[in-house]
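Re: beginner question about structure tokens

> Can someone show what the tokenized structure looks like for a real chain? I only ever see the sequence side.

Sure, here's an example I had lying around. Input first:
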Amino acid sequence: MTMNSILSIVLQAPAGPGGLGTWIMFPLIIIVFYFFMIRPQSKKAKDEKNFRESIEKGTKIVTIGGIHARILEVKENTFVIEAGNGVKLEIEKTAVSMSLSKAVQEKKD
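And the corresponding structure tokens:
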């Protein structure tokens, strides 16, 4: 067989799996993955960070452990909270779940 006959056989062969459809589907899967998984998670993390940065002295909060408390002091990475009967605790900012007013509002809804 000559090179011309081999080339003509290859060019006439039908496209099997892995053709153009695969090249189109792969980017579409990545785009769907981004919009349904990555983007919502990053937006949620950004909202939580903004919430924790906006907490001020006197705000009533609920920690991730379920402790209801009031902020006494805001430090760089921590809060000093009063958990009741004069019990003072120092917790990380990331340990705050929500403000108590937000929790009460969610219960009403």
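Each token stands for a local structural state, so reading them left to right follows the chain. Residues 17-54 form one domain.
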